[in-house]
Amino acid sequence: MSDTVSTDAIDEILARFADTEGALLPILHAVQAVEGYVPADAIPRIAESLNLSRAEVHGVVSYYHHFRQKPAGKVVVQICRAEACQAVGADEFAQEAVKLLGCDFHESTQDGAVTLEPVYCLGQCACGPSIMINDDIHLRMTTERLKLLVDKARSQA
Ligand code: FES
User: Fold this and answer.
1) Position 86 in a domain
2) Which residue range forms the structural domain that includes residue 88?
3) Residue 70 forms part of a structural domain
4) Which residues of the chain have pLDDT under 50?
5) Atom of ligand 1 nearest to the CA of 128
């Protein structure tokens, strides 16, 4: 994964949404879908194409938890931090996950392989604590299961 967005990719994305009203969010989603995050050098180009200030674009990127400002690891662990999961121990589970991975939310493990992110409801509220590892949802999580799942995901990445 590159440190900067490719010129071709950003040009294609900006052209695709040239006639779209309220294009900022769709553009940011598209950039993240291609690059895995929203590189800092994409922001002035997006701002210019939408006639917005860099601060406005940066403000949106930093407001939404969904948008990453740096590359993620090959394994992305998202832990639900919403209310129903909190009610069944997700806060304690999240603290254990931080200890287990040795990194905080919005950060990656020291080797860069695993990124920890919060998510606010995975639609599995009756079976929390809920998490998603890459595209797979896992329910009724425990720290022991998280360790097994992360080890497995690491070995397959
Ligand atoms: S609150 Fe966690 S899945 Fe809905």
Assistant:
1) yes
2) 75-156
3) no
4) 1-2
5) 2
Q: Quick: pLDDT tens for 80-96.
A: 999 999 999 999 999 99
Neighbouring CB atoms inside 10 A of 45's CB total 20
CA dist 146 and 81 (Å) reads 16
Residues with CB under 6 A from ligand 1: 80, 82-85, 121-125, 128, 130
Q: Of 134, 130, 124, 126, which Cα lies nearest the Cα of 145? A: 130
Peptide bond connecting 129 to the previous residue in cis, omega within 30 degrees of 0: yes
| Backbone region of residue 79 per phi and psi (left: phi > 0; alpha: psi in -120 to 50; beta: other values) | beta
Give the nearest ligand 1 atom to 127 CA.
3
Q: How many domains does the chain have?
A: 2
